[in-house]
Amino acid sequence: MCVTVRNGSAARLDLAVVTVMARDGAGRELGQVFDATPDLGIGLAGSVAPGKRAVAAYGFDVPPGSGSGSSVLDVEVRIGFDRPPLLWTGTAP
């Protein structure tokens, strides 16, 4: 999955404060998958200028049938500690 961070502020945004995590349908935290070939899991780095965006690919190890017999995936993206997290829920492929 790709995560896009858009900087709508007037100041540069330090991407070191961005964290991405995922949980299965039972609420268990999933391990992140890393693969250098497609830059999977390397994450967001550096900073984003005002009005610009940054994109990074993330992958998570979702065991078959995670959760209540389904492959529910809850993803949380945090930008710093003083902002509420952004949440997405869907079904793992």
Describe the fold and architecture:
- The protein has 93 residues and is mainly β.
- It has one domain (2-91).
- It is 4% helix and 42% strand.
- It is built from one helix and nine strands; from the N terminus they run E-E-E-E-E-E-E-H-E-E.
- The chain has a three-stranded antiparallel beta sheet. Strands 1-6 form a two-stranded antiparallel ribbon. The protein has a two-stranded antiparallel ribbon with strand order 2-5.
- 8% of the residues are buried.
- The mean pLDDT is 88.
Give the N-to-C terminal Cα separation.
11 Å
Strand content: 35-45%
Helix-residue proportion: under 10%
SS element count, helices:
1
Task: Point out poorly predicted stretches.
Answer: none
H-E order: EEEEEEEHEE
Oligomeric status: single chain
Protein name: DUF4352 domain-containing protein
Organism: Streptomyces venezuelae (strain ATCC 10712 / CBS 650.69 / DSM 40230 / JCM 4526 / NBRC 13096 / PD 04745)
At a glance:
By secondary structure, the chain is mainly beta. Helix content is 4%, strand content 42%. It has one helix at residues 66-69; strands spanning 2-6, 13-14, 18-24, 32-33, 47-48, 53-57, 59-60, 72-79, 86-91.
